[in-house]
Each structure stands twice: as structure tokens, then as C-alpha cells.
Design brief:
Elements: E1 2-6, E2 14-17, E3 19-20, E4 27-37, H1 39-45, E5 55-56, E6 61-68, E7 80-83, H2 93-96, H3 104-110, E8 122-124, E9 127-129, E10 141-145, E11 149-151, H4 158-161, H5 167-179, E12 187-190, H6 194-205, E13 211-215, H7 218-227, E14 231-234, H8 240-248, E15 252-257, H9 262-271, E16 272-280, H10 295-298, E17 302-305, H11 313-325, E18 335-339, H12 344-352, E19 358-362
Parallel strand pairs: 12-13, 12-15, 13-14, 15-16, 16-17, 18-19
Antiparallel strand pairs: 1-2, 1-5, 3-8, 4-6, 4-10, 4-19, 6-7, 7-11, 8-9
Helix pairs in contact: 5-6, 8-9
Length: 364
């Protein structure tokens, strides 16, 4: 099968023929229909995080179950699925509390280059290739743990709902699940990439009042306006914290960081009002440090982190798919361009240039 392989950082992906093993116990094989092009893949390409290489990238997949391994009970060939970039064991304390996004066993697998079993199913010339987020969806087929595959309605377009595998879930879920934004609340979103734009859509979904988009690129701010932002702030021209306070009067009720920058995280905390809540959606590099004035905590400000939008895959993916299909969540408006697998490096160049809200690889 054809797949996009990253052999070393800061080099283009190579689209080439590789081998794929049959699914093992509790695993399924999915014929890929679409896969979102996410900033996390770009972090791996640019060497901003230490991923086991070589690896087949991709972690926002959607497709159709093609085969199932021994003991697989939740899915069958022909099922349409979205693949979550979240793996959980179902047995630890976090999973038992209904918080699979905090499963530590899952974290180890996500960043370890294997499936939950510890095995690898990808090979090139007899050499094992690493998995990416237990998924590797930049390939014609993927073998994954059945727990990450969520059945969705067959009429949902895969080139749109694949975004719920990571970025869209992180943004929308961060607003709906982590923060619990109320109707009429003021919301500021710092960073208008795929996650930030999804957070803006989430704010619109729940009926937020003022929705403030903050970025340095006018094109991204234009995307934000199209998706529901009522105000925009270009940090190339104005100081963003002061601008948010000017728009809201006393600071936003909720503010979201969607970049992964400690400096921006500090700005997000400063942008909320006394009693407001700042939520970090972006992933900073290990060892990065942010600084806040602890006196502001006395004023009731809260700072929270969010992994995968605090979502439960089997609950939230079908729920958001239904909201999209009913016209209440405009996921399709996130997709600016589609590319073939052979054009995958062009898709990443478009992302880096700010040309797209989201790009999607479509398998024909």
C-alpha cells in the first residue's frame, strides 16, 4: 500500500509502497477515505517534538472497516469510522472516572510509536516503521486498536468528520466540555489555526456573546469571522490583552490558548476577568515554562489544561457528527482544500503559509 513516511526531521515526507500486517487481537484494519492535515504532524516534521522515526504520520483518519482481528467485538467490516487520536486502556483510574483522555497507559502508546499491544504493523523492506498516535492515517490502510475507532453514520462525509479525530474535537470539546461556556458569555481565542477555529465554532454553537479571535495573520482572522467570531484582534498591530479588555470591559469570561506558546498562555490568563477561566488547548514543548502573577488567583481566576477537548470518543464523536449533519456545527467550512496522498507535502506548505483553515488528504 502507499503511505507517507517521515524518515528524519526537516525533510519532506516520502510517499512510497510499504507493507501492512494483518490486524491482531482487538485490532481492526481500516480502508482510509480521508485524513486531516494537523499541526501536530507538522511539529513532527519540523523536529519540534521527539517522535520515534521512521514513522507513517497522520492522526485524523476516517474510513471503512475492512477486516477485524481475533476477539474484536465492537466493529464489523463495512462500518464507517472516525479514528480518534486518543488511546485509552478502559481499566485505569482515569478511564473508570470517565476521563479516558487522561489515561496514562494510552499516553505511553501514543508517543511510543506502537499500538496499545506494543507491536508495530508497518514495515518497509523488512524494517519496522513506527505508528503515529497509534494510527498512521496517511496511508491507504491502517491497522488500529478497536478502541480508537468510533462508528459514525454512513452518510457523514469522511473528508469533513475526520477532523473530529483531533483538532476539531480539541477546539469544540475545549469549549463545550472543559470550559463549559454558557450562552451569552464572552470568549477570546488566541491562535486561529485548526484548533482555534474549532474553538470559535464551539463558542458559536453554545451561544456565546462576544467571540474574539486573536492572531497575527489577517487571512486566519478572516477565517475566524466566517466561522463565528464577532471581533478580531491582529497582534501585529495591537497589544492583545489590552484589546480583549477594551472589547469586553473587564476581561473575557473565558479565554483559550490554541498555539502551544508559553508567552501566549500568559496572555490568555491575563485576558480573562476576575473569576474568569483560561484554558490551554495547545501543547507546549516539554520543559517550557509559563509565568503568571499568583495574586490574580486570589481574584478567582482559573487556569485549566485540556487534552483532546476532555472528550469521550464513543460519546462526543457521534454527537458532534450529528450536530454537523443537522447544520449546527459547520465543520465543512473548516476544510479549505483537499489533496491527494501524493500531494501531501504541498498540503503542509499551504498550512505553514496560512493559506488554509484546514487541509485534508482524500483517498480515491
Amino acid at each position: 500500500m502507499r503511505a507517507a513516511v517521515l524518515y528524519e526531521p526537516c525533510k519532506p515526507l516520502l510517499v512510497e509502497d510499504i507493507a501492512l500486517d494483518e490486524p491482531g487481537p482487538g485490532e481492526i484494519r481500516v480502508r482510509m477515505s480521508a485524513a486531516g492535515v494537523c499541526g501536530t504532524d507538522l511539529h513532527a516534521i519540523e523536529g519540534q517534538a521527539r517522535w520515534p522515526l521512521p514513522a507513517v504520520l497522520g492522526h485524523e483518519g476516517a474510513g471503512v472497516v475492512d477486516a477485524v482481528g481475533p476477539g474484536t467485538s465492537s466493529l464489523a467490516p463495512g462500518d464507517h469510522v472516525v479514528l480518534a487520536s486518543l488511546v485509552s486502556c478502559g481499566r485505569c483510574t482515569s478511564c473508570a472516572r470517565g476521563e479516558p483522555y487522561l489515561c496514562q497507559m494510552g499516553f505511553g502508546s501514543l508517543f511510543g510509536g506502537t499500538l496499545m499491544s506494543g507491536g508495530r504493523r508497518l514495515h518497509k523492506d523488512g524494517r519496522a516503521l513506527n505508528h503515529f498516535f497509534c494510527q498512521s492515517s496517511f496511508a491507504e490502510y491502517a491497522v488500529v486498536d478497536e478502541r480508537i475507532a468510533v462508528r459514525v453514520r454512513p452518510d457523514a462525509p469522511p473528508e469533513t468528520v475526520c477532523l473530529l479525530g483531533c483538532g476539531a474535537m480539541t477546539g469544540v470539546g475545549g469549549v463545550v466540555n472543559t470550559a463549559g461556556v454558557e450562552p451569552g458569555a464572552s470568549v477570546a481565542v488566541f491562535g486561529c489555526g485548526g484548533v482555534g477555529l474549532s474553538a470559535i465554532m464551539g463558542a458559536r454553537l453554545v451561544g456565546a456573546g462576544k467571540i474574539i479571535a486573536v492572531d497575527k495573520l489577517e487571512r486566519k482572522l478572516a477565517f475566524a469571522k466566517e466561522l463565528g467570531a464577532t471581533h478580531t484582534v491582529n497582534v501585529s498591530h495591537v497589544e492583545p490583552v489590552r484589546a480583549v479588555h477594551d472589547i469586553t470591559g473587564n476581561g473575557a469570561d473565558y479565554a483559550f490558548e490554541a498555539i502551544g506558546s508559553p508567552v501566549v498562555m500568559e496572555q490568555v490568563f491575563a485576558a480573562v476577568r476576575p473569576g474568569g477561566k483560561a484554558v490551554v488547548l495547545g501543547a507546549a514543548a516539554p520543559g517550557d515554562v509559563m509565568r503568571i502573577d499568583p495574586f490574580e488567583l486570589i481574584a478567582g481566576k482559573a487556569l485549566a489544561g485540556s487534552t483532546w477537548g476532555s472528550g469521550v470518543p464513543s460519546v462526543d464523536i457521534p454527537r458532534f457528527v450529528d450536530l454537523f449533519m443537522s447544520g449546527r456545527l459547520a465543520l465543512d467550512r473548516l476544510v479549505t482544500r483537499t489533496y491527494s496522498l501524493e500531494q501531501i507535502n504541498d498540503a503542509f506548505e499551504a498550512m505553514k503559509g496560512g493559506e488554509v483553515a484546514r487541509a485534508v488528504i482524500v483517498f480515491r
